[in-house]
Specification:
about 35% helix; eight-stranded mixed sheet; single chain; Aspartate Aminotransferase, domain 1; 2 domains; globular; about 400 residues; alpha/beta; Aspartate Aminotransferase, domain 2
């Protein structure tokens, strides 16, 4: 008999990486199986930290379960799409109709769908560095090439417009804007958004706007949808219930096509084809959208000056920046911090190994910066979702580990 050949994964996956749920998490799971308790600061899964979905959303889903057995229109039910249309009007995004709105199994599914419909081999998409790694993965998986533009830590992590301009080629099809930003917590000023639009305008680029954290805003900051600032550029805006409404598991998101749609008919036909192929988004999650967008916005309580998220952000930021050699731009939005380790005090060359060592010694799970396509191995991301007691313990363990690290390299 011929030798059995190993079954290998697709070569399309060679450039795909998603370290938020990567090898370090696998190590953490093994440690948990051995009975060790891990403090997980690796993922923005709000329910795991006691942030429950608003009760009115839960009740509406329950009441509509009897109506949820059949497929819906491939783009989704009319009423939730109508509520998304009204939301775009609140955000001042002009010209959005019901047909411009696609409901999906979370924004993640729609990101992959949008890339699959657009990209051919060799096409390039500008993606921020650092980024939410699904964007880079989706571009690669769709046959395209992600090209990372720099976000400037010295300018509160805003995109470096000159770096964007330098990286545009004849193969560049689009630019991704993650605002509010994961992993940095940055919130982009209108002036920066306008500059990005001008670059897109000059080079005929699609703007993909990931705005999933647009209500998780601190210190009285406000969010501007980039699609509200022009109508002569094609915008694809993505959002959903996962973060603003603490409904990660409901997998309920939406995608909005706006701006210069006349020259995008073929691309939109591709989106329609892919939407039809997956039949429809999960129906119970669709029923949650109208209630969420039209109901009491409890996220405002959590991000108020004395709200739980604000207090935990402030605590984590202070404890991290009190550690020698650790600096961190204070997040204006989202659920994360992206601290920097001074390379002179922490000469790290392999930040995944750094994350392994922190996990092994202190049982704290973080994600290394290169997992977000950070260009240097001197950052890591933490979520500040644990309650104050657990968060204090986690930050204390990180401080103790870094103190030991400094002693070892002296």
């Amino acid at each position: 008999m011929a030798a059995v050949q190993p079954i290998r994964k697709s070569k399309k996956l060679d450039e795909v990486c998603y370290d938020i749920r990567g090898p370090v998490l696998e190590k953490a799971r093994k440690m948990e199986d051995e009975g060790q308790k891990i403090i997980k600061l690796n993922i923005g899964n709000l329910a795991a930290f006691g942030f429950d979905a608003p009760d009115e959303i839960v009740q509406d889903m329950i009441r509509n379960l009897a109506n949820s057995s059949g497929y819906t229109d491939s783009k989704g039910l009319f009423a939730p799409r109508k509520s998304v249309m009204h939301y775009t009007q609140e955000k001042k995004i002009a010209g959005v109709t019901i047909d411009d709105i696609y409901l999906g199994n979370g924004a993640s599914e729609l990101i992959v769908m949008a890339m699959n419909a657009l990209l051919n081999s060799g096409d390039q998409v500008l993606v921020p560095a650092p980024d939410y790694p699904l964007w880079t993965a989706a571009v690669s998986l769709s046959g395209g090439t992600p090209v990372h533009y720099v976000c400037d830590e010295q300018a509160d992590w805003t995109p470096d417009i000159e770096d964007i301009k330098k990286k545009i080629t004849s193969n560049t099809k689009a630019i991704v804007v993650i605002n509010p930003n994961n992993p940095t917590g940055a919130l982009y000023p209108v002036e920066v958004l306008q500059q990005i639009i001008e670059v897109a305008r000059q080079h005929n680029l699609i703007v993909f706007a990931d705005e999933i954290y647009d209500k998780v805003l601190y210190d009285g900051n406000t969010h501007t949808s980039i699609a509200s600032l022009a109508d002569d550029v094609l915008f694809i805006t993505l959002n959903g219930l996962s973060k603003n409404y603490r409904s990660c598991g409901y997998r309920s998101g939406w995608m909005v096509v706006s701006g210069e749609k006349r020259h995008a008919k073929d691309y939109i036909e591709g989106l329609n084809m892919l939407a039809s192929m997956r039949l429809c988004a999960n129906v119970p999650g669709q029923y949650a959208i109208q209630t969420a967008l039209g109901g009491y916005q409890s996220i405002n309580d959590l991000v108020a000056p004395n709200g739980r998220l604000t207090r935990q952000r402030d605590l984590a930021h202070k404890m991290l920046t009190d550690i020698p050699g650790v600096t961190c731009v204070k997040p204006k939005s989202a659920l994360y911090m992206f601290p920097r380790l001074d390379p002179k005090m922490y000469p790290i060359t392999d930040d995944q190994q750094f994350a392994y060592e922190l996990l092994a010694e202190e049982r704290v799970l973080i994600v290394q910066g290169t997992g977000f396509n950070c260009l240097t191995p001197d950052h890591f991301r933490v979520v500040f979702l644990p309650n104050v007691d657990d968060l204090t313990e986690a930050m204390s363990r990180i401080a103790r580990f870094l103190d030991g690290y400094r002693r070892r390299i002296r």
